[in-house]
Amino acid sequence: MAGELEGSKPLSGLLSGLAQEAFHGHQGITEELLRSQLYPDVSLEEFRPFLAKMRGILKSIASADMDFNQLEAFLTAQTKKQGGITCDQAAVISKFWKSHKTKIRESLMNQSRWDSGLRGLSWRVDGKSQSRHSAQIHTPVAIMELEIGKSGQKQVRVAWAKIRVPFDHTLAGQEIVGIWISTSS
């Protein structure tokens, strides 16, 4: 099997397919599609471990956002490891990463970016009228609510209350009592 998995073009295609599926969100790229198009002579039982190894290596490289020195050290360690990769495979992976690093990094950044915006903000100061402890009655409670979300989509409402807010404008004595999170459409 090792000879069947050695070609640089099929491995480059496999890495491209894995990147499209894992980092660019293309759902139609399946294990069977990759095997049938790139490694038709390799059985599914032999292909699965190879695919898992390449997927793991690619995800490790991408999640660490490896520069080229880190990549070389990582790939060298992979070639020396029992059941690792060959030097030819390491060369293909290195070439692939050098040409696709920027696109994969941008895709990962876009996936992790939060595009929601602040839709509303409201606040008020209430006076406590009941409490377990009589010393807390008539103490001010500041309540602030944030509405976060995109228009036309679900919104998240986050509210919290602070008690013991002094009127002398110092931050001493502030304490978060509770946080409420709810969603609405």
UniProtKB/TrEMBL annotation:
Cited CDD domains: Commd1_MURR1 (cd04749)
PROSITE patterns linked: COMM
Pfam families given in the database record: COMM_domain, COMMD1_N
InterPro entries: COMM (IPR017920), COMMD1_N (IPR033776), Murr1 (IPR037351)
Span of domain COMM: 117-185
Family stated for the protein in its record: Belongs to the COMM domain-containing protein 1 family.
The protein, known as: COMM domain-containing protein 1
Organism: Felis catus (Cat)
